[in-house]
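# step 3/5: fold
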Amino acid sequence: MKRLFVLIFLFCFAFGFSQDEELDSLTIQLAYQSPDSSKVDTSVSIIKLLFDKKDYSKAQKFITLSEDLAKDLNYKKGLAEITYYKAKIGNEQGDVAQAIRHFKNAKSLYASIKDTISIAKVNSNLGVLEIKNGNYKDGLAYALSAINELEKRGLFEELSKNYDNLANTYETTGNLEKAITYYLKKLDVDNRSNNIEGLISTNKNLGDIYTKKENYNQAVSYYESALGYASSSDEKLRAQILPYLGNAYLKDKDYKTSARYLVESINLNRRFDNKNEILIALNSLGDLNIQQGRLKTAEEQLQEAANISRVTKNDEELLRNYKLMQTLDSKKGNFESAYTWQEEYYKLKEKLDQEQAKNTPVFVIDDVEEASTDVDPLLIPNTGVDEDLVSKKKLDKFKLIFYALLAAFAIVLTFFVLFYLKRNNRLKYTRELEAKNKKIELQNEAILEQSKHLENINKVKDKLFSIVSHDLKDSLTSTKGFIDLLKEGQLTQDEFHSLLPELSENANNASLLLFNLLNWSKSQMQSLEPKPSLFDIQEVFAEKVKLMDQKFEAKGVKLIDNTLRDFVYADRSMIEIVIQNLLANAVKFCNKGDSVSISNQISNGKAILSVADTGVGISKEDQGKLFGNNTFTTRGTNKEKGTGLGLTICRELVELNKGTIWVESAVNVGSTFYVELPKNRVENPGDT
């Protein structure tokens, strides 16, 4: 992960992400950092620099990589910062819905680490976006909830944005006094941070509000301040302010100054093709010339303004144009035309009033304390009535309703408290009952488990007694019979020597049977523990073949030895039992002239042992029964009997030594038994 991260960022750096010294330094630093929280912090610093430089695509690449690292580290602070810049980039790229979603995610992360200042910044941004979306209630709530923290920390940039947002909203909703309050606060922080661009826009906005309030002297003052902050060399800014300033002077009856500013405004805005500002200036000049009696000039200016307003779809200025055209035609004595303009005016005004009523939310939030950084406040509907003018009678009526609601609330609350207590008691009783039932259930499971264990032990005992009473008894009885005949002198020396191989066979069978019985019973009682060590498997094969030589000769079976000197890591005595069983089985199911092959090899770091015969083979159906827990046996080619435990013991002993055993066989072709064993120590999967 670390190497990949370094390579990616070195690649980005090699292609020249930035010529900026600080950005280059951080990029180099990032490439050599370990993948920890400091690497995330460095990435966040780079993302911020790229955001400030408006290089959003490159910033997004760093966001994608560093976000994965922050998630892997569960580094909430870094993840919150990354999410915050994802939101800001989304906003800049015009994806408002995604920006709101990322800001809310960032807010949750900041809340989890109790970073109140960052929460305030997020709320400030959410306020701007929600208001832009037309969600004024939510937008105001977010903006107001951010103010306390931003003011306390003196974060002028965020405060300026927040105050501007609040002021715009209150202005949109018609609460001009509140809008003025927040614009003045914005002026203060813009002054303290020397935010010239902010000072220009705020002074202009205040001029617009005082123009609406018809306080033209105050409007002129703010427009002049805006013009003063815009240097004389910045003609674009002057072009945007001059139409409004000229109009304010016109309304204040200072026609000379108004004409000067309006003419300059038209010349500048024609140069920059600012149609909206040209339209405002033309309507204002038309108004000025009507008042000065220059009706022909006014008519030309108003006709041009009407054309521009229709092209730009500026209905507000078109409405003003209709009013001025009505005044112009009235002064010219063209009353029929004036009446037509009047009809157009009222028709358009009705349309605009309807749109304004539809789009303007009616509500107020008056105090910062009404908003919270944790819970978005409920916004109070605006009745449109001044509280200072509410009569005492109406106030008393509200009080009566309030007390009635309070009493009803108390009754409902009492009911819910009683219901809650009763429900808690019922839940407590239910939980206690469930706990008792669970305890009884666990006890029953323990009893069933114990019964099952005892049943298994009984089965083992019964099986053990059955084998001892039949198979082992037969071998011992036969051996005892030979000994009694010899003891009583009923056998000649030659007869004894001829019966000696059969006596040896019975002894070998009894020995192998005892081996299998002992180990099987131990495994069933779960008390068989391997003692692994390194040993030569070829030696074990040699020892067991030597014990089986007589059987091979007696049945006329040929042994083919392909074993190699190789070491395995297992319990030697257990593997000896496995090999002896496999050799005994191979001989048991061979006819005269068949062969048994033994071999070993290395595969994938493990030893593979095999015992193959060319005997009668095993059917597919019987192959599935060989290694099961239920005993399965068939008689050999010479009617040899077995216990059915041999291969079951082999499987258990091999598995105890971390190995596996399997068979490949075909009827009348032969069988090959394979045993895979480790060549070195194998740790238990549960060991750590």
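# step 4/5: annotate
The longest helix spans residues 392-487.
# step 5/5: archive (pending)
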